[in-house]
Design brief:
CATH architecture of the largest domain: Beta Barrel
Number of strands: 15
Largest sheet: 7 strands, antiparallel
Order of helices and strands: HEEEEEEEEEEEEEEEH
Number of domains: 2
Radius of gyration: 21 Å
CATH topology of the largest domain: Thrombin, subunit H
Number of helices: 2
Structural class: alpha+beta
Shape: globular
Strand order of the largest sheet: 7-6-1-2-3-9-8
CATH superfamily of the largest domain: Trypsin-like serine proteases
CATH class of the largest domain: Mainly Beta
Strand content: 35-45%
């Protein structure tokens, strides 16, 4: 009888383990492609005086609001003229930015810009970055600059994990994750497994001896929302 009970327990353990592996496999097969599709529709390419990426975050009538990094749309501490930049959406259409609509978000390395279009584009679903835990999968999208491996700017969708948080971040960079994001992907979205926007990608630390990326940093979306909540005048250059 004891041998029978032991055998049953072993079979149950194996069954549970197999179910767990199968469930994990299904999640990878189902969720990741879905997140990839979401990322592609909300990620924009920024070209001109600087290059970078951005994410469509709001839509009102024919006006679209994009969040990117301040360093993508600025030079020497001042915003680049909107005439010097173009935003390319998922359908490959290029859009001019609304005049005087590059606005820095507080002291964060973030900026808001706007474009107008009669076409309909998806906007990001905002997640809760405070709920992120170390080891959790994260997905980063953006348009990488040309390199020895890439002959032209190329859309990239990368998968990694949250590896840590910085409690006293510089310029808002509090998220640390294991994604080898490339130059040109700054300003692109950081998404969770449900495709919710939980951060903005933007900074990497590089080993000066080897040239390899040690870690990539992002600004958590809740930090952006708190800074955006202090908005007084959309026409001013900065949020206070």
């Amino acid at each position: 009888m004891r041998q029978t009970n032991f055998t049953i327990q072993v079979v149950n353990i194996i069954t549970i383990a197999a179910a767990s592996v199968f469930t994990s496999y299904l999640l990878r097969r189902i969720l990741v492609p879905n997140v990839s599709n979401i990322a592609k529709t909300i990620t924009v390419r920024i070209d001109g005086a600087n290059t970078g990426s951005g994410v469509i975050i709001e839509h009102e009538a024919d006006r679209y609001t994009v969040v990117s990094n301040w360093h993508v749309v600025s030079y020497g501490g001042r915003s680049i003229p909107t005439t010097s930049l173009k935003v390319q959406t998922v359908d490959r259409r290029k859009h001019s930015l609304s005049p005087k609509k590059i606005v820095r978000v507080g002291k964060l390395d973030l900026a808001i810009l706007e474009f107008q279009s009669g076409y309909r584009y998806s906007t990001a679903s905002i997640g809760n970055s405070d709920s992120l835990t170390e080891g959790q999968p994260l997905y980063v999208a953006g348009w990488a600059d040309p390199s020895p491996q890439l002959s032209s700017r190329t859309y990239q969708f990368l998968v990694g994990n949250l590896s840590g948080r910085i409690h006293y971040p510089r310029d808002g960079y509090a998220l640390v994750y294991t994604v080898n994001a490339l130059p040109g992907m700054s300003g692109g979205p950081v998404l969770d497994s449900r495709g919710n926007l939980v951060g903005i990608n933007g900074r990497a630390t590089v080993d000066l001896r080897t040239g390899t990326v040690n870690s990539v940093l992002g600004i958590d979306i809740n930090r952006y929302r708190r800074a955006r909540g202090n908005l007084v005048d959309r026409k001013s250059q900065t949020y206070n």
